[in-house]
Design brief:
This protein has six helices and four strands; from the N terminus they run H-H-H-E-E-H-H-E-E-H. A hairpin with a 2-residue loop joins strand 3 and strand 4. Helix 3 packs across helix 4 and helix 4 runs antiparallel to helix 6.
Length: 174
Amino acid sequence: MAVVTLVATWGGETSNSYVTLTDANSIAATTMASSLWFSYDDEKRSQALLRACRDIDSRPWLGEPLFLRQALAFPRSLSLSFRFSLTDVSSFSIDLERQKKYVPEAQVYQAIYRLAQIGQPDVLNAQQRGTLSISVSGGTVTHSIASTGTGHVLSYEAAALLREWKRGPRLLRG
């Protein structure tokens, strides 16, 4: 079986990943889960990276995509009324560099999380997706999912790396 091609052009029109397999291997080698990561072949790791990218892109993020035709959610521009002062340009540049560093790392952590789920019982996978309740009767398992709208969770590590771009409820004061 051929390895899935990962296209990791930052802001690219045909990108399907934030990180190449080679870079993902380098990032994973520095984690405590490196043995899990390297226990899978390139095909499984590439598939996990694609799934992780979809997991990340399915979340609501602050700002707008930076490029008109970019295929993925990142890079993002957080300021819709961008003014070209030196402070703004500097802050904008720093934020893009942070995105370029943390988003690929988050994708690798999410891919490791997905690989760790392989072979887990369906009940455990359902719980990790946000299941509120599970009932077993007559050999049938039924469960109700929390209404998050995503059907998945980001790993703790991925969520922590991406928290500054997370869109959440806003407090409006009048």
